[in-house]
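Problem: given the chain below (117 residues), write out its structure.
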Amino acid sequence: QVQVVESGGGLVQPGGSLRLSCAASGSMFSIYAMGWYRQAPGKQRELVARIIRAGGSTNYADFVKGRFTISRDNAKNTVYLQMNSLKPEDTAVYYCSAHTIQTIVYWGQGTQVTVSS
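Solution.
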């Protein structure tokens, strides 16, 4: 089992920045990738960014490329999402995920990000 806990959400003005953190614990040997997803009201959950634990390769959704950066600290079993140039349409609950090779996904409880003036 793997436990995932997000932190760092909040209210920010358009054009502002936030940094989300995700701390994972438990059977980390089974985790090969971690990611961030988001879900806005009335919409499906969608991938924001993902990072491979070994090697650090990343992939991003087109709508965040150039604005968001995902990074990891394997020693701390922590993944970060630096969000810059935030837009109102980035408002959503952001979820951290931990992925196994067997396609099991562990989810955090989510953290609210609200972009509004």
